[in-house]
Amino acid sequence: MISFLISIAVLILGYFTYGKIVERIFGIDKNRETPAIKLRDDVDYLPLPAWRIFLIQFLNIAGLGPIFGAIAGAMFGPSAFLWIVLGSIFAGAVHDYFSGMLSLRHNGLSISEVVGIYLGPNMKYFMRFFTIVLLIFVGTVFLMGPAKIIDEMTGNFWNLWVWVGIILLYYILSTLLPINKMISKIYPIFGLAMLLMAIGLLIALLFGDYAIPEIVPANLRNMTTNPTETPMFPILFITIACGAISGFHATQSPLMARCIKNETLGRKIFYGTMITEGIVALIWAAAAMAFFGNVDLLNDAMLANNSNAAWAANEISANMLGKVGGFLALLGIVAAPITSGDTAFRSARLILADIFKTDQKKIKNRLYLSIPLFVIAFILTQVDFGIIWRYFAWSNQTLATVVLWAITAYLTYTKKFYWITLVPALFMTMVCSTYILVAPEGFELDNTISYVLGGIITLIVCILFMTLIVRKQKVHQITVTENII
């Protein structure tokens, strides 16, 4: 377990070292008035205690991704550990911190509006559509996912659609009510379930009779059953999203940017929650590799059960933690997606409110924007869950890529060290473009052709970005200073 323990230690160290570097590059101002105070409306803009904000942000971003994604990613072997650690520190946490802090500096604006400021109006319109579609996908996925788990936990006591209805009702209430009426009260309880789940699995791994594969050259290969059909690059980097980098996080950060009392809390809230999620993903990936005996047996078990990560999570929890511990862990598995699904719909409402400049103090205005979202989501529940999940995975990482480019533009305009996001932006552009070319839900091209075309697309995007930056600066279409921000 040496590699596993070192990986956890590196993640924690990354928060205290690289996290401070990122914070210094951004340049916080502890005396600046935050939107929670300046624009307080006691619905969405409302100062909350830092510990509550941390738990809300953590549960917002820690949906099924760091559990199901980590289990599926573990099928590739210990390479998954490297992606979780390096991705979390140098890509995911950086993405989350800057997206959250830029929203904070722009009065809590939604991520689509922030992207528009730095990448232009055309990208803003695209991002408005793209993020709303993604959030509806998230809400639908996190509606059906937990409903199926609860249905299985209760031995099909009620019809699946009864649980769907109950969760949907909760989503409606949490989307419409002020953030301190439901979300800030329920999330600490769900947070405890998530933390108990992770700690319980960690203890079981450390003191049980388990062996976790080490990060050694012999294991740094594609250990899936059919490496040709599932090439490590880019499949692994799409499969493990929420445990490494996820565009969904950028849609959630504005929720908390509207509740933070001081900019000094940004590193803890945004960078820190991503590192915490990375640790959760590490634990689940390690548990998947260890519980089934080895990576090959994990692959066999997953293939025998239609690659059902929910089944694997249930087996791991029940057997590694016993009945009581397994039940608590399953509560965590249920709580994680539910607490992402509700805020997905809430975020979609706020994006629509930003687009139409609709005051959200009145409940009727919130209803006008929310009802269409829930109707569309319910219709999507009739579509195969697996299809929605696959398209969500690619869309999610594509959103993260766009946000990284927007942050890079911000850093360039303000003459700050833009390489900190340029490198992850280039990498994720290559990942997303290659994936859609090679994947079954994409064009299903030959791997080599996909790599070449992916590289060309990445180069074109880089050239277009540089052209945009030069043009914007030359004609003074955008002027960004610390005072304006």
Radius of gyration: 21 Å
Strand content: under 5%
Major sheet attributes: none
Question: How many distinct helices?
Answer: 19
Count of DSSP strands: 0
Report on this model:
The chain is mainly α and 485 residues long. The chain contains 19 helices and no strands. Helix 11 (232-239) packs across helix 18 (419-438), helix 13 (266-291) runs antiparallel to helix 15 and helix 18 packs across helix 19. The radius of gyration is 21 Å and the shape is globular. The protein starts with a helix and ends in a 10-residue tail after the last helix.
Considering the chains and any ligands shown, give keywords for the structure.
disordered C terminus; single chain; 485 residues; 19 helices; mainly alpha; globular
Blueprint of the fold:
Elements (H helix, E strand, L loop, with lengths): L1 H15 L1 H9 L8 H4 L11 H12 L3 H10 L4 H27 L5 H9 L1 H33 L6 H17 L6 H25 L24 H8 L8 H10 L8 H26 L3 H10 L4 H48 L6 H18 L4 H29 L5 H20 L8 H29 L10
Helix pairs in contact: 1-6, 1-13, 2-6, 4-10, 4-12, 4-13, 4-15, 5-13, 5-15, 6-12, 6-13, 6-17, 6-18, 7-8, 7-17, 8-9, 8-15, 8-16, 8-17, 9-15, 9-16, 10-13, 10-15, 11-18, 12-15, 13-15, 15-16, 17-18, 18-19
Give a quick summary of the entry.
The protein has about 475 residues and is an all-alpha fold.
